[in-house]
## 1
Amino acid sequence: MNLPEELFNRLLAAAQDAARQAHCPYSNFRVGAAVLSSDGEIFSGCNVENASSGLTVCAERVAIFRAVLAGKRSFQAVMIYTPTLTATAPCGACRQVLAEFGDIPVIVSCCDGPHRLQTSLSELFPFAFGPSNLGR
Ligand code: THU
């Protein structure tokens, strides 16, 4: 599934703006994410690192948690942007967190080169443990 170009560009711009806010003094690896709720709102996030490295939170989780705080529980798309030459797919922990809200048809990673990854959450994270395992 492809997003309309105007929406794709808005999501990418939101993820790029977010990447500029990344707190990443340890890795120097900036990540911005933007999630698009099913009702058309965009929420962005950046990675927030911590001197106690296990406490670092990825950009995707910051974005989805901001959306949850605004009452959203269903999502159409997630954009990940890194200012690199190859695109970055969401880490395993973020895949699990995204899977809490069901399949997401568009997960797209963009970078500063032509390389792009696009897939769905169910393709990226098959056989997920989720609410249905708990009878929800
Ligand atoms: N990072 C993300 O923000 N999202 C990902 O999907 C992969 C990794 C961040 C965490 C850490 O701040 C930095 O990238 C290097 O691992």
Note: The radius of gyration is 14 Å.
## 2
Amino acid sequence: MLNKKSVDDINVKGKRVLCRCDFNVPLQNGVITDENRLVAALPTIKKLVADGGKVILCSHLGKPKGEPKPELSLAPVAVRLSELLGQEVKFAADDCVVGDNAKAAVEAMKDGDIVLLQNTRYRAEETKNGEAFSKDLASLADVFVNDAFGTAHRAHCSTVGVTQFVDTCAVGYLMQKEIDFLGNAVNNPARPFVAILGGSKVSSKISVINNLLEKVDTLIIGGGMSYTFAKAQGQEIGKSLVEDDYLDYAKEMIAKAEAKGVKFLLPVDTVVAKEFNNDAPSRVVEGSMEPDEMGLDIGPKTRELYKAALADAKTVVWNGPMGVFEMPNFAKGTVAVAEALAEIDATTIIGGGDSAAAVNTLGFGDKMTHISTGGGASLEFLEGKELPGVAAINDK
Ligand code: AMP
């Protein structure tokens, strides 16, 4: 269990509570196209309201790079949150985030009211953890709550800097839940513990592979990153994704797995095509590919091999698709893994980002134990790092 002060440990009655959420949702023409992150934030907001806090919400949205960009305003989030909560979320539209509008709105708050500040990344200091903006944010608050797991791996003003200027700092329910699930899986797993890693690049998951090899019973590799391992073992991989700088590393990891007695599973067959296109003719290859072919998914034998490896698992952590799942003709491997996870009697944890998107779009979302709201944050957690946004909160 996370040993940090939580919203259950603090008294917020009549106090101004600055709550950092992760409202970084996809928007198309001002319409929120996936509101999972808003829904995930509701329990903490409701708790703070029920306890009589004056709840001041803040978040970043996209990358405005320190400039007010109307298309990255949090205004649509205020509207949707008001509907989801059944009470007004007043939007304080200051380009400098903590300006006259925000100050007046906070001044006028009654216990249980909610105000949402403008996109914190409208201020250039936000991502540099600058002192002036950290102090501005802190000036609005008696208490700080961080519930933004998706940004917990970043030391920014609204996640870390502000904590230096507010006495009482706690984590919200979402942050607590994310860390508890990931932490229990990695540090205290029911065994067999299987990790599945896929996605495009070995380089982005080096430290995850290295750390998980100390913990898991089986490590399953798929997706674009598997071809670097295949090439390291002497296979011809045609035009497939590869990172030649990581061939030695791939060999090292295979040797480390062997030394640790960890089963290290790589694809035994591959669905290949000559073009990166859903309609490109494809075939299944065992072993080497032709020079003009590229691997776009794991093959049928690999699907069966991976399903069998998952059958008796008791804990599974999955990060990264098995192929180009966005193209239906190359999504079978990712679907097979999602199906296997949906069927087994195990704690199944999906890292955020593409794996979460894959599981949700393929319709398996409600079959998983936990789908993380943070891609980068869950990866850093799996690397064994302490997240700065969590480290900055007071211990219990
Ligand atoms: P990542 O962000 O590293 O987790 O990678 C996710 C992306 O990897 C998705 O957009 C997939 O389409 C892509 N991907 C997975 N397998 C392959 C592959 N065999 N070739 C090219 N891209 C792939």
Note: Residues 199-201, 204, 223-224, 241, 295-296, 320-321, 323-324, 326, 353-354 surround adenosine monophosphate (CB under 6 Å).
